[in-house]
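for the writeup, i need someone to sanity check this before i put it in the appendix. the sequnce is what the collaborator sent (i think, or maybe the updated version? ugh). structure was predicted straight from it, no edits. if anything looks off just tell me and ill rerun, i have time this weekend
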Amino acid sequence: MSTERTLVLVKPDGVQRAMVGTVIYRLEARGLKIVAMKMLYMTRDMAMRHYSVHQGKQFFEGLVDFITSGPVIAVVLEGRSAVEMVRNTMGVTDPLQADPGTIRGDLGVDIGRNLVHGSDSPETATEEIDFFFSQEEILSYVRDVDRWITES
């Protein structure tokens, strides 16, 4: 379990439904530390590049249309096994299949409106973080709680 960084996007439905604070709270409550955060509109070009792995799939155009339909909150989180921690906290993509207690299981509406995106691997996290943030936008700091965890 190593300290790593991951990217989370609170999607337009999360912003529209005023769930930003709830999503971020759930991730911070798991011990993850925010090291960068901003609100932005994804352009169509950005969305097509971000979701390029899905290009050619039936849902690609709808995904691009949705993610560009309103503002998103981009967050870089840091912590022990951050990618896995976020993925477990989010739940599976389809809220109908997501476990209760996960963000998508408790708050998601449907597979196309599931509130949140999270990097799927440490390698993808690095690429996605670099796509949304410059190195100058990512902060390094120590929280008291991190000292307590390290000391125990």
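The longest strand covers residues 72-80. Residues 3-81+116-151 form a domain with the Alpha-Beta Plaits fold (CATH 3.30.70.141).
thx in advance!!
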